[in-house]
Design brief:
This protein has about 290 residues and is an alpha/beta fold. It is about 35% helix and about 20% strand. The relative contact order is 0.16.
């Protein structure tokens, strides 16, 4: 069991999402953590009055914002809603945190980049989103950075999956039970990230976050693969005989383009926390035991 150096009170937005549920699970391994998880119906981050009432009631030390508009394709036609949640909602949180001396940890995405860089993206790389979703998430990042809030962390991640909610791994398992053959793109690269590993990193960061180490961080599990190889690994671990066909991205027409490269370099946060990263294959195997 991990021991935080002091009692800490957390408020987690987006309580119904897979990351929030993973945080709730991982909290059991940390002593001295008190938390409240609030769903959208319980806390609407687009409403400053809703935020203020919630803070008056719960008085957290740290807000962990997992709430987001994540429908990547739908965002192309629902730009106003995407920016309302991903920019205005985040701006509201940052302002209220600043006014009340509360720390903020906000979850962002690889979609703030265009995916054209051949190497791993580092925190200092210049964002260049090509989708409405990516642009709205970048706008949220900038709202925090320019808010004047000193104690904040923005954590960009990618390819998140868990036993909770809807995600790539669970979709593959469902399709594998319905079909003998599946086509999966083989020209997009990234690092599958178990939500529980990300949750543990967030919980550890919540205890050490100060104005001196505030800023942008990247976190994914260790290693790089393609969606095709990721799918193959899922079926291999589950001993399912599925014929997985590698296909190019243009075989699947989507409203929003997917990044070719979602690789994020994670050493900055790994070094800050003094932890070892976990290979994605190891985390996948651990998760699949539960399904």
């Amino acid at each position: 069991m991990s021991t935080l150096s002091r009692n800490i009170r957390l408020l987690i937005t987006g309580g119904g999402g897979q990351l929030a549920q993973a945080i709730k699970e991982e909290e059991a391994t940390f002593e001295n953590v008190t938390s409240i998880h609030l769903s959208k119906s319980e806390l609407d981050i687009t409403s400053t009055s809703s935020i203020k009432k919630t803070l008056d009631l719960h008085q957290p030390d740290v807000i962990i914002n997992t709430a987001a508009y994540t429908a990547v394709d739908a965002a192309e036609e629902d730009k106003e809603k995407a920016f309302l949640v991903n920019e205005i909602g985040v701006k509201n949180l940052a302002q209220v945190c600043k006014d009340n001396g509360i720390k903020l940890i906000h979850i962002s995405t690889d979609y703030v980049f265009d995916g054209e860089k051949p190497e791993e993206y580092i925190e200092e790389d210049i964002p260049n989103p090509t989708t409405v979703y990516g642009k709205s998430k970048l706008a949220g990042e900038q709202a925090i950075i320019t808010s004047g809030l000193l104690d904040y962390a923005i954590i960009r991640t990618s390819w998140v999956y868990s036993v909770y909610g809807s995600n790539f791994v669970k979709t593959m398992l469902r399709l594998g039970n319905e079909k003998d053959e599946i086509s999966v793109v083989n020209d997009q690269y990234g690092s599958p990230t178990l939500a529980n590993n990300l949750a543990s990193v967030i919980l550890q960061l919540s205890n050490v976050l100060t104005a001196h180490n505030a800023g942008v961080y990247h976190y994914t599990n260790e290693g790089v693969t393609t969606w095709y190889a990721f799918a193959k690994a899922v079926f291999s671990y589950k001993k399912m005989s599925i014929n997985v066909l590698p296909v190019p991205s243009d075989r699947f027409i989507t409203k929003a383009t997917r990044p070719k490269n979602s690789k994020l370099e994670s050493s900055k946060i790994i070094n800050l926390l003094g932890i070892e990263n976990v290979p994605w294959e190891e985390s996948l195997a651990k998760m699949l035991v539960k399904l």
